[in-house]
Write a structure and sequence with these properties.
Blueprint (H helix, E strand, L loop, with lengths): L1 E6 L7 H16 L3 E6 L5 H12 L5 H25 L4 E4 L6 E3 L8 E4 L2 H8 L3 E5 L2 E3 L5 E3 L5 H12 L3 E6 L20 E3 H6 L1 H4 L5 H10 L3 E5 L7 E4 L12 E5 L2 E10 L4 H11 L7 E3 L6 E9 L3 H13 L3 E7 L2 E7 L9 H11 L4 E7 L2 E7 L3 H11 L5
Parallel strand pairs: 1-2, 1-9, 2-6, 3-6, 9-11, 10-12
Antiparallel strand pairs: 4-5, 7-8, 11-12, 13-18, 14-16, 14-17, 15-16, 18-20, 19-20
Bound molecules: aspartic acid and magnesium ion.
Length: 403
């Protein structure tokens, strides 16, 4: 098999850990696989470089920031290659440029436009392990770019796609994706497999493991992703297309989002175009809307409730105040003390009663549901934040995820 192995900052956090990574790569090669390694900077290194730049300027030129930050990954790549060669395993390190990664020219948050894998294949075919500095590429003019913080996952997935690798393993300090946050429910179980769409919906469970952008890219490029820990030999979680999951569980996981606030608009003028006006203005001001509920209007008025991320409430308020002033809305209230609990599973598509069970589970705990939204593979409920953990635990057991 051709395997891309990506090691995050903590996995290459010091020289001893880089040696451990070299041992793992060597083991994979000895099992008969071709290996391309993608590395992050040693943990803390990128932050240190950012601080160096800020020592001289609060607003350093972004192309210079990219020159600076991209160096962290190159250090790790070169060290790992040196370690591998020392072990008798031929290896070569490559910058983003040598790996053929071309991006747009938006410095510090560039997007990958194309990858020419010729250089990587040449080295692989000559029997070498290829070690690539993640998080970086070059624009059309050869300027170094970086992909945004945490971007080396994205490098790994894009490279796996370009090489048509059989597997892209993402090594972190977390052993995989769990049925829910084990800090809330110690009985949470590690999932063997999960579909891309479920993973995207369970973002809060994967937050520390994988960037959502990488999962989206893996889905688009059809890359089989595995998240696992570099500290033990424990198997991780495979993130793959739904067809590859034989036994589709009704519910795969319970996610909790405490970062939402509810905005309630009362006495909204019930005219065609009002929702369009409100939500377009919010979008223009970069406010991300999640759930929306409009209640049946009467006397020419309606009520509208929606949720936004907590740190976007002030931006939303600015927009809503204009509608108040224009007398299109009578009153507004903001509620910070809510959370969103979601149950996610592809099996829901073909089964009834999944949502009803969630509601009766809440009822049994005397938890009031404030808002509900559903999709093909998800049921989300907004409830009071003080019941967050209780709700997660009771749903986890209601769907027998601890079994
Ligand atoms: N070193 C970069 C960062 O800290 C990229 C990465 O680790 O993925 O953001
Ligand atoms: Mg990282």
């Amino acid at each position: 098999m051709l395997i891309v192995q990506k090691f995050g900052g903590t996995s290459v956090g010091d020289l001893e850990r880089i040696q451990n990574v070299a041992n793992r790569v060597s083991k994979t090669v000895k099992e008969g696989h071709q290996v391309v390694v993608v590395v992050s900077a040693m943990s803390g290194e990128t932050n240190k470089l950012v601080a160096y730049a800020e020592h001289f300027s609060q607003n350093p030129a972004r192309n210079e920031v990219d020159m600076l930050l991209s160096s962290g990954e190159r250090v790790t790549a070169a060290l790992l290659s040196i370690a591998l060669n020392e072990m008798g395993l031929p290896a070569v390190s490559m910058s983003g440029r040598r790996a053929g990664i071309v991006t747009d020219n938006i410095h510090t948050k560039a997007r990958i436009e194309s990858i020419d894998p010729t250089g990587m294949f040449d080295e692989l075919n000559s029997g070498k392990v290829v070690v690539i500095a993640g998080f970086q590429g070059v624009d059309d003019n050869g300027n170094v770019t970086t992909l945004g913080r945490g971007g080396s996952d994205l490098s790994a997935v894009a490279i796996a796609g370009a090489l048509e690798a059989d597997l892209c393993e993402i090594y972190t300090d977390v052993s995989g994706i769990y049925t829910t946050d084990p800090r809330i429910e110690p009985k949470a179980k590690k999932l063997d497999r999960i579909s891309y769409d479920e993973m995207l919906e369970l973002a809060s469970l994967g937050a520390k493991v994988l960037q959502n952008r990488s999962v989206e890219l893996a889905k688009k490029l059809n890359v089989n992703l595995v998240t696992r820990t570099s500290f033990t030999d424990e198997e991780g979680t495979l993130i793959t297309k739904e067809e590859n999951i034989m036994e589709k569980p009704l519910v795969s996981g319970i996610a909790l989002d405490k970062n939402q606030s509810r905005i309630s608009l009362m006495g909204v003028k019930d005219r065609p175009g009002i929702a369009s006006d409100i939500f377009n203005k919010l979008a223009e001001n970069n406010v991300n809307i999640d759930m929306i509920i409009q209640t049946v209007g009467h006397d020419g008025m309606t009520n509208l409730d929606f949720t936004v991320p907590k740190n976007e409430v002030l931006d939303a308020k600015e927009v809503m105040d204009k509608f108040l002033e224009a007398h299109e809305i009578q009153d507004i209230s903001y509620d910070d003390s809510i959370c969103k609990v979601s149950i996610v599973g592809v099996g829901m598509k073909s089964h009834t009663g999944v949502a009803a069970k969630a509601f009766s589970t809440m009822a049994a705990e005397n938890i009031n549901i404030l808002m509900i939204s559903t999709s093909e593979i998800k049921v989300s409920m907004v409830i009071s934040e003080k019941y967050a953990e209780l709700a997660v635990r009771s749903l986890h057991s209601a769907y027998a995820l601890d079994k």
